[in-house]
Write a structure and sequence with these properties.
The chain has two helices and nine strands. By secondary structure, the protein is mainly beta. The protein has a single domain, classed as Sandwich (Immunoglobulin-like). A six-stranded mixed beta sheet has the order 1-2-5-6-8-9, with helices on one face. The longest helix is centred in the first third of the chain and has 10 residues. The radius of gyration is 17 Å and the shape is globular.
Length: 148
């Protein structure tokens, strides 16, 4: 029994790493991960996301909704919101938080899907700050939303 005692801590460590599932529907899963090192690594690499369009972002109640368009319709897809760390500036009244919204599309269909992706504010760092959401699949595409 003692020779297998290392398994429990390993499983606990593995469960603590990686993104947290924050929303799931029949075909879409949303994950949130706060990892500045991973953010820097993925921001500098191409091909970290399947292609989609990031239309806008808005806060309603205790949830931020990221509105996207992508090709799909017959398989499971997942979106991961990967967060950097909060940055304060002398030139801005609010701190800023950069993020990447990445799509993992295991769906070969090409129907145009509009989706409003919910992310609970309770899973994000406490505000107020401005959240920059970058789309790594489309160069220069970013939306900003103020988090209360």
């Amino acid at each position: 029994m003692k020779k297998y005692s290392w398994i429990a801590p390993l499983l606990l460590f593995a469960a603590a790493c990686g993104p947290d599932l924050v929303f799931e529907s029949n075909s879409v899963k949303n994950y949130l991960e706060i990892d500045p090192a991973e953010y820097d690594s993925k921001r500098l690499k191409g091909g970290v996301s399947d292609e989609y369009e990031l239309e806008n972002a808005e806060v309603e109640g205790d949830t931020i909704f990221l509105n996207v368009w992508y090709g799909g319709g017959c398989g499971e897809v997942s979106f991961t919101l990967l967060l950097d760390e909060l940055v304060t500036s002398d030139t801005s009244s609010l701190p800023t938080l950069a993020s990447l919204l990445m799509l993992d599309d295991r769906d070969d269909c090409e129907a145009g899907i509009n989706e409003s992706l919910p992310f609970p504010l309770s899973e994000l760092p406490d505000g107020p700050y401005t959240l920059y959401v970058y789309n790594p699949s489309v160069s220069g595409q970013v939306v900003l939303v103020d988090i209360p």
